[in-house]
Amino acid sequence: MTKLIGIYGASGFGREVMPTAREQYSDAETEFVFIDDSDSRASCNGYDILSWDKFLDRTAADRSVAIAIADSRTRKILTDRCLQAQIAICEIRSNSISQGDAIKVGEGAILQPFVTLTSNIKIGRSFHANIYSYVAHDCTIGDFVTFAPRVMCNGNIRIEDGAYIGTGAIIRQGTPEKPLVIGAGATVGMGAVVTKDVPPGATVVGNPARIMEKK
């Protein structure tokens, strides 16, 4: 009987995640598809694109989903949809990642090639770490956090739920007594160098990173 794995999202990141998923799970009994409710194409890169309803209708003995969508709010909505339908959320983990000791990663993580997790790290649900990102020692990361490529998250940092860290951002190391905090729903811009706490919901850019004022 067929095992069905759906990559939710047929856009750029979903297409990057598909080869990682195939590398991890592929066998003669596994079928891979994209799930996308807004893409009218029948297929992409040789894989069927199904709506959510058609994914549920597809014959399979077992089915699971990886949600390859960067927006944390959308990712949470789709995670809840899967759980309500009793569809498992699978982890996607490249064979090339480096992982040390005492690391806990929540359900539904996507860890792309050359990600590094050093030691004594706690990560919540549905974490995305894109290529060449790292998380150093004694960091705590909440649910639905997104790292774009080459994020440098140094030691003793706390990143709260739903934060987005842009490509090439550097987050300065905190201390055990005072971790550097990225607040819930905050956005760290591409290439930003974060040297102090970021308030919840704020967007910071530049070197050193400063709050971008709304116009």
Automatic annotation (TrEMBL):
<dbReference type="InterPro" id="IPR050179">
    <property type="entry name" value="Trans_hexapeptide_repeat"/>
</dbReference>
<protein>
    <submittedName>
        <fullName>Acetyltransferase</fullName>
    </submittedName>
</protein>
<dbReference type="InterPro" id="IPR041561">
    <property type="entry name" value="PglD_N"/>
</dbReference>
<comment type="similarity">
    <text>Belongs to the transferase hexapeptide repeat family.</text>
</comment>
<feature type="domain" description="PglD N-terminal">
    <location>
        <begin position="5"/>
        <end position="80"/>
    </location>
</feature>
<dbReference type="InterPro" id="IPR020019">
    <property type="entry name" value="AcTrfase_PglD-like"/>
</dbReference>
<dbReference type="Pfam" id="PF17836">
    <property type="entry name" value="PglD_N"/>
</dbReference>
<dbReference type="InterPro" id="IPR011004">
    <property type="entry name" value="Trimer_LpxA-like_sf"/>
</dbReference>
